[in-house]
Amino acid sequence: MIEVKNLSVQTSKGVVLLDHVEFTLTPGVCTGLTGASGSGKTTLLKALMGVSDGDVSINSGQILLDGEDLLKKPEKVRRDLCGTTLGFIPQNPMTAFNLHVPVGTQMSETFRKRLRLDKNAARKLSMDVLQKVNLLDTNRVYRSYPGQLSGGMLQRATMAILIGLSPRYIFADEPTSALDEENKAYLNQELTQMKQKAAILFVSHDDAAIRTLCDELLVMQSGIIVERGTTADLFATPHKEWTKEFVRLAMVEEGGGWTWKKSKSEM
């Protein structure tokens, strides 16, 4: 279990980015996180992964992993947790890869290092998980450099790595943003299967994906979680104005994804 308690984050100039954020991630449960652009969602993900920007600091709170505070752990310990314990799907998949090394080589090296597989086993696992995310031209994808693949293909490749590593906790940052409807369905299907053993924090504006995957939903505004509850309850009876508008547009578009821009009051 991951317990986030009283987490507050600010910049070096004292600007508050997260204000006393609290929630729990439990294996078997997918927790959705939504809110306006700039509301603090990415800041929260970076704090959880231990990769906050240089001018950002955590000034209070705890991030408890099975009762142990990650904020008190050395950087190397937190880095070693990435992969098999903490998994991440980035919004921009290009950032997950070295542009000068073939995708398959990077996948295999990750599996060799994190899972201690030999070269042949790591390559086989790479090919198997690429198939699982509907990258059926597997040999070509394996040999390709990141710049030779589309954003959607790279997003699926990052998902393939996650499937291979099978982490206990998954942080997903807008993972469906670069995908067409068919491949969104594949990704949602894989995350649904992974949810059986893992806890997922699913950051998204994609209302259809949220309703498909998320058991509960958090709504963030200006660094504060302003609304929370089961996904069904929040879609049925939202209370905050942002959530009401989110649900209204979801109903109008019959589940189509959308991106909420900052209002003047949030700039």
From TrEMBL:
UniProt main location, coarse: membrane
UniProt xrefs under Pfam families: ABC_tran
Mode of membrane association: Peripheral membrane protein
Recorded GO MF terms: ATP binding; ATP hydrolysis activity
Subcellular location: Cell membrane
Keywords, in A-Z order: ATP-binding, Cell membrane, Membrane, Nucleotide-binding, Transport
InterPro entries, per database record: AAA+_ATPase, ABC_Ni/Peptide_Import, ABC_transporter-like_ATP-bd, ABC_transporter-like_CS, P-loop_NTPase
Domain ABC transporter, chain residue ranges per copy: 2-247
A Gene Ontology term for the protein's cellular component: plasma membrane
Similarity section: Belongs to the ABC transporter superfamily.
Protein name: ABC transporter ATP-binding protein
